[in-house]
Amino acid sequence: MRVSFWFVTIASLFVTCLITANIIAVKIIALAGLLVPAGIIVFPLSYLFGDVLTEVYGYAAARRVIWLGFACNLLAVVAIFVGGLAPAASFWKLQAAYNAILGFTPRLLLGSFVAYLCGEFANSFVLAKLKILTKGRWLWTRTIGSTLVGEGLDTLIFITIAFWGVIPAAELLTAMLTQWLFKVGYEVVATPLTYAVVNFLKKHEQIDTFDYNTNFSPILLSR
Predict the structure, then answer these.
(1) Are the C-beta atoms of 116 and 67 separated by less than 8 Å?
(2) Distance between CA atoms of 181 and 11, rounded to whole angstroms?
(3) What are the angstrom distances between the C-alpha of 142 and each of 38, 54, 59, 188?
(4) Is 178:36 a contact under the CB 8 Å cutoff?
(5) Element (H, E) at 106
(6) Could you tell me the end-to-end alpha-carbon distance of the chain, in angstroms, rounded to an integer?
(7) DSSP label at residue 214
(8) Cα–Cα distance for residue pair 53/202, rounded to 1 Å
(9) pLDDT tens digits, one per residue of 137-178
(10) Residue 41: DSSP 8-state
(11) Which residue from 108, 109, 103, 146 is spatially nearest to 124, judged by alpha carbons?
(12) Of 37, 57, 113, 136, whose CB count within 10 A is highest?
């Protein structure tokens, strides 16, 4: 597959949203009366850009970017961890703040990485299959439908791994439903933007991929 400027741009935005969301997720914000991690501000955009990649360039291209996002996020985590271990200058008194804001627990990291892979691959798979089923019509049905599945898996897996046994079951379920509905609502509101980006790319790239013969295994890096 040829690599164009626009493909690189969408892939870069995807990875940036992912890493940014993971960094700012440490802050809990009150949004419309709901308590959610600050990462929710930008994380749903990674699904929007993931939708664009699959819709325009196909599942195989999206698969490469999903693994690229995983590798970049892992690099960021390792760099932050090593930075925290490195001895601080004698005049620098912010080590506790660094650890509090940028520190990760193994359980949260595991939940984040597993949820990301499962959610993104499910999102891309569902969208690609729905595109074939709808013969390329009704874009909104596959962007929203894939988000329902992908964000649902992401939220379920992350909250279960990260907070099972820490938060009471009833509150855990409430947190899952709240975040899932918010993320899906985000996708619905952003649908006009998705249409605009998809239509622009299809026109300028002269490409509209249908995954009729694609191998959907998530572990491949090529068709």
Answers:
(1) no
(2) 25
(3) 27, 11, 13, 11
(4) yes
(5) helix 106-133
(6) 10
(7) -
(8) 11
(9) 999 999 999 999 999 999 999 889 888 887 788 888 888 888
(10) G
(11) 146
(12) 57
What residues does each domain of the chain span?
A: 5-205
Question: For residue 134, how many other CB atoms are within 10 A of its CB?
Answer: 13
Query: Quick one: tokens of 106?
Result: 């193994």
Structure tokens at 146: 């894939």
Which amino acid belongs to residue 69? G
Phi-psi sector, 31: left (phi>0), alpha (psi -120 to 50), beta: beta
Cβ neighbours of residue 48 closer than 8 Å, sequence gap 6 or more: 143, 187, 190, 193, 194
Q: Which token pair is 37?
A: 């991690």
Rounded to 5 degrees, φ, ψ at 164 are -65, 130
pTM for the model stands at 0.92
C-alpha pair distances (Å), 207 with each of 40, 79, 144, 197, 203? 31, 37, 22, 13, 8
* H or E stretch covering 29: strand 28-31
Q: Tell me 167's DSSP state.
A: B
Q: What is the C-alpha to C-alpha distance for residues 99 and 93, in angstroms, rounded to an integer?
A: 12
> Would the CA dihedral through 41, 47, 50, 55 be positive or negative?
negative
pLDDT digits (tens, 9 = 90+) for 194-208: 999 999 999 999 999
Q: What are phi and psi of 36, to 5 degrees?
A: -140, 155
